[in-house]
Description:
It is a single chain. By secondary structure, the chain is mainly beta. It has one domain. The chain has 2 helices and 11 strands, in the order αββββββββαβββ. The protein is globular, with a radius of gyration of 16 Å. The N and C termini lie far apart (about 30 Å).
Amino acid sequence: MPAPLVSIASHDAFFDRIKAFCGQAFTGKVSLDTGGDDSFNDKQLIMHVRKCDERELQIPFHIGKNASRTWIITKTGSGLSLKHDHRHRDGSHDVQTMYGGHTLDAGWPEVQSFPADQYSKELFVKQGIPQSADNTWQMFIYPNRFSYRMVRQGREFRVDFDLTKPITPPKAPWGYQD
């Protein structure tokens, strides 16, 4: 018999609030971007709570026709992990795949923060973007809105998704199967 996967109430509530939308997709918009990155402008932004089990949530984030990103939230037994699975069109892994962070505290049922983990810090330095080593990703889940936020000194980025208007889910992200 495997050891039990332990968790705390605020992490479970956050996980379960997102999991309740499993199978659904929603459009979003950039609500804040202090970095001037225009790669999201004029593109349809879609999050799809695609695959859910008791331990992991897979949430592809489509930017127009770009299906390279999937957020993976995992119960670890010592909190929640957020990883960014980045793929190329052929499904192969991007060099910057699986960066992310891990909760350091209880957070709230509606909000969890994921400061960059050591793997991510070293990856960012190796990739020549050491400023990203200070990233903290946050996810917010409210009855009508899901938000994804990245913040570090000098930069803040947030996308808000309207949970009141589900849309037809997109095809599987690059490297995944329908």
